[in-house]
Amino acid sequence: MKISNYVKRSFFATVIVVLVLSHFSFLPIAALEGVPESEEFKGIYQTDFGDSGSLTPENWGFTTSGATLSINEEEIDGNNTPKMDFSVVDQSGGRLATKTFDTPVMGSKLMVEFDWYPGNHNDKGTHANENGGEFRILDGAGNTVFTLNHTKNEVIKYFPGNKEAAETGFQDPNAWYNIKVAFDLIKNEAVLTLENKATGESETHHTSLSDVSFDGTITAIRLAGIRTSGNNHTWTTYLDNIGIYHVPIAENVITTIPSLPYHRVYVGDATENLETIGLPKTVPVGLASNETVEVTVEEWHTVDKDWDPNQAGVYEFEGTLAENSQIENLFERTATIYVYNRLTPPETNRDTEWLDRGVIALKADDGIFVSWRLLADEYDKDVTFNLYRNGNKLNSKPLSVTNYTDSEGEAGAVYTVETLVNGKKTESKEVIAASENYLSLPLQKPADGTTATGDYTYSANDASVGDLDGDGEYEIIILWRPSNAMTALEDVITGPTIFDAYELDGTLMWRMNMGMNLTSGPQYHQFVVADMNADGKSEFLIKTADATTVYGATDGKYDPDKVISVIGNPEDNGRWINEGGHVVDGPEYVSVFNGDTGEVIDTIDFAFPVEKEKGDHGISWGDNFYNRADRFLSGVAYVNGKTPSAIYGRGYYARTGFVSYSLNDGKLVEDWVFDTDDAGRGEGLGNHNLATGDVDNDGFDEIIAGSLTLDHDGTILYAMDGEMGREQGSHGDALHVGAFDPAREGLQIFGVHEATSVASLQYRDGATGETIKSFYAYKDAGRGVAANIASNPGYEYWGTGGGTVETGGGVYNVQGDIITDSFRDIGLPVNFVTYWDGDLYHELLDGTTISKYDEKTNEVTVLESFEGVVSNNGTKANPSLQADILGDWREEAIYPTEDSSELRIFSTTIPTEYRLPTLMHDTVYRMGIAWQNTTYNQPPHISYYLGEDMREDVINGDLEFPKVDYTINVNAIKHELQLASTDKKLSVLFNKLDQAQHHHDKGKAKQAVKQLDDFIKHLAKSNLDSDLQAELHNDVLKLKDLWNE
């Protein structure tokens, strides 16, 4: 038996294992009258569900969600006494019925006895696997210690822990079986006895408990419906005559050792001497008397691999308990602790978009509100600003913040933001004040159409941004979704999805028609906008097919006669879909396009076609009707630590695949391909979304795909598999990744799960997967949020768990405090989070409103309600995009109007005293914008902690940000020069750059390059720092290469 040292339920662990064991006296067996006993076992809990008297509590304390529990007194195959009836009717997820005992049952031997009528399941139909039902026995750490499993047509099977199932000789589901499962903790084995009560036929099976996570107690029993690929589950089963027994042990016997949290050290901080690691000298142990005491650890030693203080990773240590005359270690319990030897945060210098000042001037309640962008490398410099209205200076002294309210301002006024470096003017940027509190971007709605299954119209949907033309301003790419778009479960011949690229003034740059060989719907057409080759212009990457076509524009208007690019064979348009609109055959591509022109750069075969083997109808993904096969994800990650790569995935309910694409010398390259079929693990752990970030401090980004985290090289960093302090995960609908805890360096992860048998809400360490906190509601939790909304240090999180604070219905701080008992009672949204009102807390965006939590009153109030616009994706109710694309560090919310004639870009008009750089220069946030719209939209987070608890650090400018390496263009080079020196002697360098840009814009390549060569000569003669000279020299050489292409 492997002693599990990880406690699975946050509150269950805290309350039951610690408090209950500390405050309850030992349960005297004699007090439990009416519980039958054998010569060997003593009875603890028993029920006949009402044969011998009234049943208290209802259903003997079994609880369920999404299914039905009742007491059935009808005759069922000879049993005409009361029995428990558990019914699952046409359910799309696994359903549970759980009985948790008041006090864990412990002893040298334990036994669970019950009568079970397995009952029939609905037929699997055309699906690959049958639905099933299970009876499970759980320990105090939440481990499933023993399982009995049956399906419609298979024999009853059993397995301890997560071991491979073994068969019994019984198959008939419509029969009563008396079942005994006895655990011998001395022999470390389980004995299963089954008897058909009608025939008297019986059999016994012995199985080892070696390598089974088992804390030596029985705490709960559970019925579980098992839904397989595709078909909903219908099942009725019955239980009767349950008894829980033990062979008593002395009160001073050690029964459990609660889990210990991971111990973190940093590479190089400790030595080979284990004493330098700081392992605990004592550990808590649970006794049979239900007390918890501290016991000395005699010795810690490594398990599986030797300790190496210079090698990062997780090391397992086992602790031998010292002998104690007052305590008996009958079961030879040992302690386990995991030591995470972590790399120190790296010094990075990643390719980053150069952006201009992004000035915005909007109508506000008290005049005109003006805000502008602070760049990442300006934060710790003497960079201030002057603001002018129609040429008149408004500020009496230079502004250090990047916003200003002009109480006398009016729409149409010209505002100029003047940048000062060390008190000297370096640049200025103008904007005309808008007449509304938003910017309007006119859209060109595509024409209606008709397919074999009916007419369709278009509406504007999700969007993303990139600097497509290299001018330092963002452009918007918007997805047009046809009205007959479908989910992967439906069968519709959908209209083609269309993408438009727009300047912020509404000028159309190009239009992409995806064609009829690609289905339209929320699970399809995941796209990537990123500067993949560091040329200063963003590319557009997407999965394509025969007949995907890009059209140009004439005078900013869509021109169907101007064909820019065609993918594959246009004559095969619509050839590769079936009558249900699903892609079933034919070529599947990935293409990358020039974001400025729409021209295709390169196209290669997609790494994961729908069929793994010809004619298998997508069965490798989990079903044969294209539901699980038609699940796609996309994102961006710096897998090489320097330049962004595109991440594309297929499948997450079962088989899961990801591929990383880089753009090298104009060619798409597969950096790596990950497939759970090849890895042999990780299937079924993916989400409807993903996130990316450097969780392990190696300087490269990992892919957080829900309960599965891939390393930057495409191998599994860890899976939430129930091992090493990682609670079992599952597929989920919501995912948040960011720096949530100021006391815990690095990134943390909060998510919710769909499987009812795992934690509904789970907060974990990003690098190791260690579960820090979890809540079990035994339901599909479809929503979850992490945001900093209260004064406690660290973020809060909440999600659609149970209805009580113990089952995940509250609002929780990452450091353990409970903020409020019920997020539902106060109407706290569970959707997007944003920075809007000027403090360092988050606001909550849901639909077309922004709300704020008031900690003092425990109430939620609406701050903004956007009129004339609509949110996207039904109940998901998200904007087309939420991102910091203009103005100061706070975020814009972008929505289409009701008729999709325009996009409205809403930006805050609330002043802020905080000076922070644009969020888009934080790579975790910038990557979050790239993956925000993949399938189930999720909000972005930042890689550093912000909160009102660190107000003074922000006010004093004490934050630290990584170095950035701006993608190459003349303005970026000038910016670096301006920050370095305002010496007038450097004017010749600026002149050479201006001349080079002028000639380049005129198409005079030789003259432009000559000016750059002259720049290099004058640079070498300057008094600039030698390191800066080297950087600028290298940047100009890169610019020459780009201009020579």
From TrEMBL:
Q: Which molecular-function annotations from GO does this UniProt entry contain? A: lyase activity
Q: Which residues form a coiled coil?
A: none
Residue stretches making up the Rhamnogalacturonan I lyase beta-sheet domain: 351-430
Keywords for this entry? Lyase
Origin: domain of life: Bacteria
Question: Is this entry keyworded Phosphoprotein?
Answer: no
Write the protein's name.
Rhamnogalacturonan lyase
Native organism is: Gracilibacillus oryzae
